[in-house]
Amino acid sequence: MIVLGFESSCDETSVSVTKDGQCVLSNVVLSQIDIHKAFGGVVPEIASREHVKGITVVLDQAMKEAGVRANDIDLVAVTQGPGLIGSLLTGINAAKAFAYANDIPIVGVHHIAGHIYANQIEQDLQFPLICLVVSGGHTELLYMKEHYHFEKLGETQDDAVGEAYDKVARVLGLGYPGGPIIDRLAVSGKATYKMPKVETKRAYDFSYSGLKSHVINTLNTLKMKGETIRKADMVRSFQEAAIEQLIEKSILAVDKHQAKMFVVAGGVAANSHLRKRVYEEFKDVVVSMPAMQYCTDNAAMMGIAGFYQYQRFGLESSMSLNGDSRLPLK
Ligand code: KG4
Ligand code: ZN
Question: In this predicted model, what pLDDT tens digit does every residue of 49-86 receive, in sequence order?
Fold first, then answer.
């Protein structure tokens, strides 16, 4: 089965061609990062307009690279939500137009299901598994007993971990997006700044606003005292605290649920310190983290997730498919 995938939930315009829920024939990603950089974050209005400008070019290139024509496509899969509504609608309208014009079935796919299924590109998911979702908008632990069955064990009570990275980078004047910049700078730093230990009421929940505020307050105090800020040490200290919280809760979830596999999904899965810590800590289960190009937003992961969604639920979406900026994962 050949799936044409569309992703446009935030600031990447992407179209893919994937085969049988594993093989990536093409995955074209047009990033808007350089445009949003000047504003220190994604500007929704600009993102929508850039998606409109880019979507048909990206579609043509994805089809060409995969060497397929419209009549080779069996299913269209598009990110339905969550995300920026204007951005989502551009991808959805393009996908619907393509599906309608070529009489191909279409499914709307949850963005986080896509991030999880990015792992299926490298190796088959093994169940039961525990998945740690870490992106700009999500920090959660999921239990999956089989394909396309998501049970949420816990989630952040405030900020997402990626959001905390972006905010800390911004207050330190490091640029956007903060995650990769902090990741690189932290290598040359030492964890010499004390960070608070985070407590949550429930074992599998997370919290990042306290850590973020602590960094901001420390910076303000240092500035007021006229002391120098050792940026590399600061981000190293922040990063170690941020990642340890993810590791601790994940260990607990994997042990309690006798998981066969531990999966990491979302943009923060690209973090070098997280990847190192996961390999160090999870020795008794199969570990899966997406290849770097499939960690951040891309359409290949949406096409793969769409394939498995279609296998499990058949055709639940149609031409009435609409974007949902707060779509829950079911
Ligand atoms: O999954 P994603 O591409 O978009 C969302 O669905 O949110 O994740 C983007 C997030 C941003 O917050 C970005 O700073 C973070 O992932 N990120 C990283 C790294 N690369 C991207 N965070 C830490 N370390 C990285 N290497
Ligand atoms: Zn994402």
Answer: 999 999 999 999 999 999 999 999 999 999 999 999 99
In ligand 1, which atom is closest to the CA atom of 12? 3
Domains of the chain: 2-117+294-313 (3.30.420.40), 126-288 (3.30.420.40)
Phi-psi region at 195: left, alpha or beta (left = phi > 0; alpha = psi -120 to 50): beta
Task: Classify the C-alpha dihedral 19-20-21-22 as positive or negative.
Answer: negative
Ligand 1: lining residues by beta carbon, under 6 Å? 10, 115, 135-137, 162, 165-166, 177-180, 183, 266-268, 270-271, 296-297
Q: Which atom of ligand 1 is nearest to the CA of 136?
A: 7
Using a CB cutoff of 5 Å, list residues around ligand 2, an ion. Answer: 135, 297
CA of 9 to the centre of ligand 2 (A): 8
Give the start-end residues of each E strand in 166-313.
261-265, 286-288
pLDDT digits (tens, 9 = 90+) for 77-130: 999 999 999 999 999 999 999 999 999 999 999 999 999 999 999 999 999 999
